[in-house]
Design goal:
Strand content: 5-15%
Number of helices: 20
Number of domains: 1
Helix content: 25-40%
Largest sheet: 13 strands, mixed
Distance between the termini: 10 Å
CATH superfamily: Alpha/Beta hydrolase fold, catalytic domain
Radius of gyration: 30 Å
Shape: globular
CATH class: Alpha Beta
Structural class: alpha/beta
Number of strands: 15
CATH topology: Rossmann fold
CATH architecture: 3-Layer(aba) Sandwich
Amino acid sequence: MAAAAHAFHLVSHLLGIVLFFACIAGTSSQDAQNPQQRSRYASGSSYYNPRGGYGDQPHSEPGYKTYFYKDRRYGYQPSYLDPYYNRGPTRAPEDRFHYDVTERIPLPGILGGWRPDLQGRERPDSKNLERDVFVTTHYGNVQGFKVHLYDHPEARHRPWSLPVERVTATVNVFLGIPYAMPPIKEGRFKPPRIHKGWNLMQAVDWGPACPQPSQYTGATKGIRDIDEDCLYLNIFSPNVESGLARGYPVMFYIHGGEFVHGASNLFPAHILAGFYNVTVVSINYRLGALGFLSTGDENSPGNYGILDQAMALRWVYDNIRFFNGDPEKITLFGPGAGAASAGLLMVAPRTRDMVSKVIAQSGSALADWAVIVDKYRAQNTSRVYAQMLGCSIESSWKLVQCLKDGRSIYELGNAEFQPHVGMFPWAPVYDVNFTVPRDYYDSWSASDWHFFSEEPEESIKTRKYRHDIMYMAGVTTQEASFILYNNATLARNDFIMTPEMFDQKIWELVLRYNYTLNPWGVYEAIKYMYTYWPDPNNVTHIREQYINLLSDFHYVAPHDKIAKMLVERNVPVFLYVLNTTIEAFNLPFWRRVPHDLEHMLLTGAPFMDVEFFPEKLRLRRDMWTDNDRNMSHFFMKAYSNFAHFGNPTPSQILGLHFDVAKFGQLKYLNINTTYNSSILINYRQTESAFWSQYLPTVIGRLVPTYPPVTEYWWEPAQPLQIAFWSMSTACLLLIVMSAVCCMLWRNAKR
């Protein structure tokens, strides 16, 4: 009897334990459905408030200061000339393209008055020169205008000493041509759709930029308008009286900005097209979350921004011959994210056959920030972002629906944050194993959603690019100085970096890239590599070494890696290192050659009217030096030569020439000043090998990032399933224990 009592007591304790854990499981399942649950990836200390999002401030007042887009195609308010115009979310996208010129009131100048930021301040008498240009495309008629240029790189005298009637070149300009349907309403977080066309498109003003953080917008930054309806391109073509038998080479510009900010209007290509016989195209594409938010499944696969670029490239390939461009000679170029995008388009299945050449300025498709390979990293970024905007992350479907239907473009565009892993929050996502929506969406098919067929590095290894591809690339000597310049903490310290700050920054880098397998070993390796050993405590050298560290990691090593892979596969590769500054800017010595310094040189800024550029970059014409003008001429000539001939210097330009890089002897043009540059070999090979070859062995992985611990999506049915099976298991154990107890009791009675 005592044994039976003991057995019953033991079973009772076990049953209590089982019921306790079953209750916990049931409670956890309820919590999983509660949107107030806080993810360990959330930023800040606030929790979700259904009425006001996170924290106390409601999201109805995002504090987003921007400039609303107003149609300037006629120089008047759109309501005056176009009763159908309504740029709100309810207007039909095609209403904008019903224009009939015969109904319009004749206006002076170019369609409603002279625009200095479009045509320049110095202008000829509008009565004496023809203004309008008409082109017929597959999508309808396009009306552009002629811009008359007064200065040029080989002028003997500067234009302020010349009469304004002396026109040195004329370029045909078409601004704000839509290459896809507006990605609004149902189009948000979906691939671009082919445009339906128009009767007459008056392409006489820039289209609005895509939504982005307010710190990058405004008159001083050059971005005056933003709108979710932003998929526009611009075309600059040399003025010719009739079509050419064979068109000009096409230079397709993709702006940089870390996939977060930027706009096509920041690259006025009048001089490049007008004097160097190329047709230049610049494009907008979706940025930030609107362009790259990915949940890793069919609810939002991502890559909308890079798919925008692919559709713009297809539009250009199909229509550029109408603008005297040669579709078989398209050169992609751009800085940073634009360079990385060019490399991705070079190997992507849907675009590779359209790309004949690539010029990568300070960027590489093989950079860690160029593609997010880890699906869970992309998911975590999207969840943190959604939580910042007060959206439920209970499931990917709820997350996307909240962002699509419940948040404005100003909230989505202005929600800037730093991810837990990686340099930038948004980038194209490796989507090969993603599930995508089936063919049940209007205007979309399953084939529209995927961009990648394999990782970019694998595509290059297996030669998945056009057979005649050519590649040109360059970096500056102080690439990452802009990161220090934008750091508020360093700015308060007059950009002085102490040894303690240097150590802290290395640890931040280690943690940001989640080197969890051997963080201390990684820290010691990086510190050893970038300590200035002759004087380790010298703050000037510490700052210089920190700039070198970030430059090598983010730009130089990936640039070196892709160049070597292409050289090994007999692709013609031309390399340069920019080691001189723009003298007119008078930058401090530690950032005299920053990231994308080529921008002002390639746009011909020393020869352009200042009105073409953002206020913060405007310089008086007499501030440009002869060295600045020579460098601008050199870059425009070298880039256009590459587009024409596949060689940046078939003949010397101001005493400079490039050599083809060879395996084991990576020749590059070290650009100091014109007549003072030289061909060198193997730029920063030790530093590049440190990041590409050595550091992965210290970490124990093949890539320099490690995926974060990931919370899995809670689907709506999962909590109920967990509760059901927990209680079922408890009941089953109760029955088994009861049977055991009865058997023990019966044995004890005997």
